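Second attempt. The first submission of GSKIP domain-containing protein had a stray character pasted in from the spreadsheet, which I only caught after the job came back as garbage. Lesson logged: always re-copy from the clean sequence file. Corrected sequence (220 aa) follows.
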Amino acid sequence: MRARMSSISLFADNAKMLKTEPIPCLRCGNIGSPSGSLPFSLHKVSSINRSFAGTNPGSRGDSSLELEAIAAVHELSFAVQSISVSEMLPRTPDLIFVNLTTIEEQPFCLELTHKGWRITSLRLDCMVGDFTRLELFTKYYDSLFSLMDTISPGYRARFGEKLALRLKMLENGDESGAAPCGSYASLPLSRDSSQCSFVSLPDVTPTNPAKFNAKITLKC
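This time the job returned cleanly.
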């Protein structure tokens, strides 16, 4: 009986220890965001990392490509079949690889450095591309949004629908119900995106949708 009471007490103490509490940032004192959300946007962290291209690694401070990769996985998941940071390829403060499969079921391995995003291969977890298509594997993109806009019509379709939904909600004064970055609140889109055309689709996610007045026309 004494041993049983001791184990119950130990379990209770462990439960208290395992209870997660908001941890304030040591630099700014802000409380961390709840699980499932990120305290930064992919567009913002991409801009910060691009500003460090060509600089001394020691001067980059707390800039992290891993933050940009995590933001990419979080914000692009609504418009791809799959996306994840590679667990097989090298991961350093100056180099990280992301595996991505588009809605069209085309796999890509992407390289992320302070210079930007680059396609390294049409296979997952692969750093060697097709040398007969150098233009595809040598171009750098400032953001993953612009890269996706180039390689995936399905991404453009879902991005356009999502943006139209957010603008409609903002017009109705329902800001709390607008789908946040990294989620998709409208009906599923068919993987056959060849029948859709788009007008005035931006290259990057607008940082302030309320001030974004572009008209989007979806013709399916």
